[in-house]
Amino acid sequence: MWLKPEEVLLKNALKLWMMERSNDYFVLQRRRGYGEEGGGGLTGLLVGTLDSVLDSTAKVAPFRILHQTPDSQVYLSIACGADREEITKHWEWLEENIMKTLSVFDSNEDITNFVQGKIRGLIAEEGKHSFAKEDDPEKFREALLKFEKCFGLPEQEKLVTYYSCSYWKGRVPCQGWLYLSTNFLSFYSFLLGSEIKLIISWDAVSKLEKTSNVILTESIHVCSQGENHYFSMFLHINQTYLLMEQLANYAIKRIFDKETFDNDPVLDDPLQITKRGLENRAHSEQFSAFFRLPKEETLKEVHECFLWVPFSHFNTHGKMCISENYICFASQDGNLCSVIIPLREVLAIDKTNDSSKSVVISVKGKTAFRFSEVKEFEELVARLRLKCGATSTQYHDISTEVPVSSDSIDPSDDTEVQSLTCQRECSRTVNTEALMTVFHPQNLETLDSKMLKEKMKEQSWNILFSECGRGVSMFRTKKTRDLVVRGIPETLRGELWMLFSGAVNDMAANPGYYAEVVEQSLGTCNLATEEIERDLRRSLPEHPAFQSDTGISALRRVLTAYAFRNPKIGYCQAMNILTSVLLLYAKEEEAFWLLVAVCERMLPDYFNRRIIGALVDQAVFEELIRDHLPQLTEHMTDMTFFSSVSLSWFLTLFISVLPIESAVNVVDCFFYDGIKAILQLGLAILDYNLDKLLACKDDAEAVTALNRFFNNVTNKDSPLPSSVQQGSNVSDEKSSQIRVDITDLIRESNEKYGNIRYENIHSMRCRNRLYVIQTLEETTKQNVLRVVSQDVKLSLHELDELYVIFKKELFFSYYWCLSSPVLKHHDPSLPYLEQYQIDCQQFRVLYHLLSPWAHSANRDSLALWTFRLLDENSDCLINFKEFSSAIAYTEVQYKDPSKGDELSKEELLYFSQLHVSKPAKEKEAKSARNSPEKEKEKVNIQAYLSQWQDELLKKEENIKDLPRMNQSQFIQFSKTLYNLFHGDPEEESLYQAIAVVTSLLLRMEEVGRKLHSPTSAMKGLSGAAVCVSGVPSEGQAEKPLEKEPSSPREEPQWSFAFEQILASLLNEPALVKFFEKSIDLKAKLENAKTSQLSCRTKK
């Protein structure tokens, strides 16, 4: 590898390097200790350790070439090599292309400049095809060389970054280098002759977390396949951990979570993943999640600045975040103040003429925002104007005081509201009013105390609107949160749900979309629509809105439209309950976009087949319980209790367990705070019932206590009629249970657990996602092994090892395959056995690793025949049960010598089928494949066949269902046996045995022919005798076959029944001994595991 020319002092280098070649301008050196007998002794050992600790390139490149300037002690390193062959190529290139040219220069300086320019040109040419795209390409190239040399992974494996750290083996730290690539976490260390090499695939990581203890102040804990690994002494541990977390989750999504990965085009090409790209992606995800923006938004710019808050009369410090379509601001304390400005709302962008470096953004609704102390504010203004097409306002001299209109903006005057109204009117089939306004209109003439409180709430919100503005660009402050906790008024609930969830942005970006989807989805009939129809009448059946056709039809349209929009989710139970509540307070199109926001952004992966998102949040909830309610954790023997109880809480946002009048207050908080609100409320509920739960003796008692609590949660301020309120039926009854108001419960959850930050929840989600998916995978494996173990004669441990190898080969096939960015043959919705399937090429690789006949010259043909035999449905895929049955039939495990020689009937049956299961014989082959397994017997031909016949009489399928083996198949069968015997110590005796078998079979056939047709028997057998006697020579074997069709009177080809072949084979002890040869399956599996990756690397 050519290196960027750097100075080295030859005087000091001579102690560590040995001279190999030299001329007037170049020196070729070898690292001391490399290539010497015994490793160079103690000196070589110390040099190797020094190279590893100091991250010297010499560890993986022990040869180098220096450019020397005559009469100078300063040399320039220009090339290095991992072996003598590589460095010799560089040396020869220099002699052929550079040496002759250097002689024409007059000065040493000109020579050095010429050499440096030439070497830099070579590096630049190499860089065009290199993965080195980091900040320091030269250093990264060296790291890439070490990575490739140390671990021998395929060159397509993309190194993302690397870090110096310590790996702990017990209590001993080993200093080395951690390499993070797209598919693997790798570590290398070499200390005093002890080499540590660790390769962990990201998809095998089940736990990834930062830990600390007495020995390790702060370390990163990685758990993979039950083994724990600890890495510490990072310079930037938080940055390292974040990158590892992203790579692990990327691999998990790509391999296991196909539904999520398909929706993420950013991750399609693993070769494009870089450290900088992952960091930018993490910031973009955090940005869009915090401000509830569409997932497509990516963070482009971040500027520290101050935002003028007019109603508080002060500047708040924070960050301005800019994406393709939005300008957002969040104060340093995110809860203090935040603003979202869609570029579609911007009217003008200006800069002030004073020294405040201010940017003024004017939006619709007579509102302006002033950002001050913005670095490079003039360039920012120019970029923003170009982005949104806005021009300067008519008042160019804007003062530093930019007012926000103090008048409350009438919603009817808001341009955005008008445009949304127009969009809703584009379809005549959808409801343009929320169901609550139709079925429970407010009667202003009869105001009771609850209605008065409702009007007071509305007035509080109107005051907030007058101060903070109304619509998508309003200021969101602590006061906003306080009003949400108290409960949003019925008349404003739909509008504010749209605003806080970000659904208003989705609807504005897709005008008329809902009406189109409704029209396209009408009349469709599939599994999703059938499930929707079944659940329509179960959605809030006690509410009059869903006892009428109006509500049912609206619910049907929204759910069917969403299933049409997102067929990967389609319809999931609990979506009907959530959507029915949305329809009560939001117009139909708004309810649709609210459902989109919930399913695709706020609760990701909740509503799919495996509800992974809900399981992840339950794991987060358990973690929070351990942190905040340790006494409850100590009391509960099994934490899965909380998972089973809380699943409906997360899936339905407490709607299914709380009365409707209380549940809507929870939904208010959810749309404002996201999943954080649900987690906080869950903790508050457990905390409130802590004493009762601690007194419970079992899970059933605890569930009963929680159900009683939910039945006694009320909403004393709800304006809903008593006929609708679910809690009203028990509110007046005398009960020993204390009533709990939902507003007090939510306020308490904010006071006690409001310090839980969204960033922490995001980190816990990522961490627990690994655990949840690996747990699901482990469940899949255990179910597969349980089913397969009943039919395949391998131990559970052997099946477990085989399953790991089977699945790993499937993963390896897609690690570096750009045409298949997701795992093609993995579908978690299928039954356990069908979730993972391999194709013919993958089976061939595994067959070569595991088959005792892999040394055979025609091993590829054997693999192909075996695959065809196993592929019963001809879809070119086989599952683990089919694969393991092939291995079980071909592998002979260790046997007790005292039992004598035994031969497995099913092995011979299986082997014979390889040559008769042609496509034309598919029916017969299928019946042969389904032949039942039997126990092994002694080699006694008569007793063997007699007992076997008795057993087969009891079965629907018997040996006679097997097709007879014809002439060409028998010749191929014989040649295959000869290939299997090649290289065996008993090769000669095996050849003689197979010759005896073939002769015996031919004589048997001859006798049969004479009995049925004495005149024609010899004609067919004369050519056959020549074929079989010359089996090792394929040319001789095929000549008689070519002559046969040309005979004037075509005679029927001779053939053999399986009973004949079996009896003949069992009569030869050499053949029986060959097939009964003891093979250590455990060693085979271990060897396959270790060589699986290296085998692919060689390719």
TrEMBL record:
InterPro entries membership: EF-hand-dom_pair, EF_hand_dom, GRAM, PH-like_dom_sf, Rab-GAP-TBC_dom, Rab-GAP_TBC_sf, TBC1D8B_PH-GRAM1, TBC1D8B_PH-GRAM2
Main location: cytoplasm
Pfam family for this entry, one: GRAM
Keywords: Cytoplasm, GTPase activation, Repeat
Residue ranges occupied by any Rab-GAP TBC domain in the UniProt entry: 487-674
Record has Repeat as a keyword: yes
Any GO MF annotation of the entry: calcium ion binding
Gene Ontology cellular-component terms listed: cytosol
UniProt record, GO biological process: glomerular filtration
Domain EF-hand: 858-893
Location in the cell: Cytoplasm, Cytosol
Role description: Involved in vesicular recycling, probably as a RAB11B GTPase-activating protein.
PANTHER family, per the entry: PROTEIN VASCULAR ASSOCIATED DEATH 1, CHLOROPLASTIC (PTHR47666), TBC1 DOMAIN FAMILY MEMBER 8B (PTHR47666:SF4)
SUBUNIT field: Interacts (via domain Rab-GAP TBC) with RAB11B (in GTP-bound form).
Name of the protein: TBC1 domain family member 8B
Origin species: Bos taurus (Bovine)
Encoding gene (name): TBC1D8B
